[in-house]
């Protein structure tokens, strides 16, 4: 046995808090406030869709055919829209990628465009566009679009054909 008296462990109370030992600093709550270096103002952005009426809108995945490599390249997934200009009454197809909202298809619908099934699939379509402006310069593209189900694909075909008829009437 040892000569030290037996002690019972004490619980800490505000009166019996152990004292700080040398080298130990007391923690303080940080109350610093930082002011922004640059003040930003709200900027209005324009999508150029403000003067257009949405005729059709549905989620899909768009592909373009790369003639150099002879393969389909994915352009993006997002909402494909048919937009009718309120002044000129021209109809265009516009598709933006979901998260970045970058344009992946932007062209006018022409009565000469032909929509055909892609490899016999009932949920995808193929068409050729004479001048697509997605990359800001007009380029001829072969597009394929795939939908979640055949009902959505059928609705797209109906909207596409309706837009073609309206544009044919507009050209006369």
Structural commentary:
By secondary structure, this protein is mainly beta. It contains one helix and seven strands. The protein has a seven-stranded antiparallel beta sheet. It is elongated and about 80 Å long. 20% of the residues are buried.
Describe, in short, the structure shown.
The chain has 172 residues and is mainly beta. It has one helix spanning 150-171; strands spanning 52-66, 71-85, 91-97, 103-108, 116-117, 124-132, 139-146.
DSSP strand tally: 7
CA-based gyration radius = 32 Å
Indicate the mean pLDDT: 85
Task: Walk across the major sheet and give the strand order.
Answer: 4-3-2-1-7-6-5
The low-confidence runs, each spanning 5 or more residues with pLDDT under 50, are none
The main sheet comes to: 7 strands, antiparallel
- Overall body shape: elongated
How would you spell out the order of helices and strands?
A: EEEEEEEH
What is the tally of helical segments?
1
Q: In which range does the helix fraction lie?
A: 10-25%
> Helix/strand/pairing class, anyone?
mainly beta
End-to-end gap: 113 Å
Attribute tags:
172 residues, mainly beta, 7-stranded antiparallel beta sheet, 1 helix, 36% strand
